[in-house]
Specification:
Structural class: mainly alpha
Distance between the termini: 38 Å
């Protein structure tokens, strides 16, 4: 970072490349896609949507009671 000190920081990681997904994640995504249940409200009685499960898992992870997932930043910005 030029201009902040006399030392130059050298990054050794490639910041534009994401870490590869584990095979278990790829298999689970494939399973969900093949089920045809891609939306929150496309469930049968007694079934919990994947989106709801993800929201609850993330809320638990960050120590929150609630979490809401959105399809885009534009959708999230409409939350009042």
């Amino acid at each position: 970072m030029k201009g902040t000190s006399e030392e130059t920081l050298i990054f050794e990681k490639e910041f534009t490349r994401q870490e590869p997904l584990p095979q278990a994640a790829i298999d689970r995504v494939t399973e969900i896609l093949q089920s045809g249940r891609l939306h929150r409200y496309n469930t049968v009685k007694g079934e919990v949507a994947e989106a709801s499960l993800l929201e609850q898992e993330y809320a638990d992870y960050v120590g929150s009671t609630y979490c809401a997932g959105f399809s885009s930043c534009g959708s999230a910005s409409m939350l009042h």
